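Let us practice reading a record.
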Amino acid sequence: MPRRLRVDLEGLLKAMACTSLAEEAFLDVITGTVISLRSGEHSLEEHENRFAYYKSRPARYRHIPHGSPREVYHDMQAFVARLDDPVAQAELRRALSGKAAILRFLAAVKDFPAVAEKWEAYHRRCLLERARKWLAREGFILDA
């Protein structure tokens, strides 16, 4: 039976949104805190030791999966498809074609402040859904 867990939701969503392999994060399933490990904060040996420490204690610490650029791209496509602003929709569709689409989208959406606000809310809902699914696979229910 899944166990309710109160978590640092902002920390969890930030960790799940991160696509950088230079950052790793773990969820402490006792306290609900998110532990971030960033390359460069410590020596390589210390970083590896800290990662190994948390990874070797799965009863307490769960490795938080990285965000996938593919997931972000699909979120962006789905968001653009729902837009009711034809000018913003056309511009953002253009930004999503070709290489560096995610970066181009993020730059282009800033030209439409109201749309950018909607994008942030939509992306947060997508991340929250992923977080809930991941927690469920780990045997937990998000306790708000």
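A brief commentary: Residues 69-128 form one domain.
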